[in-house]
Specification:
The strands form 3 sheets. The chain has a 4-stranded mixed sheet. Helix 5 packs across helix 8 (about 145-155). It has helices at about 15-20, 20-25, 50-70, 75-80, 90-105, 110-120, 130-140, 145-155, 155-170, 200-215, and strands at about 5-10, 30-40, 50, 90, 180-185, 185-190, 225, 230. By secondary structure, it is an alpha+beta fold. The chain is about 50% helix and about 15% strand.
């Protein structure tokens, strides 16, 4: 049975951006699939217009993220988007873009990473449909197909988020980013924090977990922690 890394994320989560190199490294681990589960952190009543208060709040976290992970934050973000009083931080549209990409055969993780770059580096409004259409085009998606599927996915959004939030509650996942590794029919919670800024170490960690599970046999159960498999 193939192993699956279940990734609980939000496109407007700064720590998810900080963890992006780790997910990119995980995507290159042989025998490991990645399943994306959006949590709608800033959707509906939690969407927020850009205000001086929001700018001050997120910049403190962003400085910490940059220090720990080395992920770049652009001037167009700090002194452009975060000063744009007409912008709104809304998780729903970029999440829909990821669901659309997956439905149309494009890697959802690639769309997530492009959205994160557009937001945190380029300072673009990723809650605006024209921006999403442009990013989708950059990834090779047909404009008309993207728009049609975007409208269809609006009807699926609540169910997707509901599943994500139920899973998180069931497994004690309290925020974003969160990971569950599915191996041999078991789900194990993995910690990202020790590997922030260390994508190669994270990939090696995952490879070790998969190798440990394989050594137990396909029908044997394995329980893994950051220290190894039992």
């Amino acid at each position: 049975m193939p192993a699956t890394l279940h990734y609980y994320y939000d496109p407007l989560c700064g720590w998810c951006y900080g963890a992006a190199p780790l997910l990119a490294a995980a995507a290159n681990v042989a025998g490991l699939a990645i399943a994306l589960h959006a949590g709608a952190m800033m959707s509906g009543p939690n969407r927020q217009p850009v205000t001086p208060q929001l700018r001050q709040y997120v910049m403190g976290h962003d400085a910490r993220i940059q220090q720990l992970t080395g992920q770049p934050f652009g001037d167009a973000y700090f002194n452009g988007l975060l000063l744009d009083s007409g912008a709104v931080f809304d998780s729903t549209p970029p999440t829909l873009a990821i669901l659309v990409a997956q439905a149309l055969g494009v890697d959802g993780l690639a769309m997530l990473h492009r959205l994160q770059q557009a937001h945190y580096v380029d300072g673009r409004r990723i809650a605006d449909l024209p921006v999403l259409q442009q990013l989708a085009s950059e990834l090779g998606l047909d404009g008309a197909a993207f728009t049609a599927e975007y409208q269809r996915q609006q009807g699926e959004f609540a169910a997707h988020v509901g599943r994500s939030q139920r899973d998180m509650a069931m497994h004690g996942l309290r925020g974003f980013p969160s990971l569950l590794l599915e191996l041999n029919g078991q789900l194990q919670r993995l910690e990202l924090s020790p590997y922030l800024g260390k994508p190669q170490a994270f990939a090696a960690y995952l490879q070790g977990l998969l190798a440990g599970a394989a050594s137990h046999g396909a029908t044997d159960s394995a329980f893994c922690t950051p220290d190894g498999c039992q």
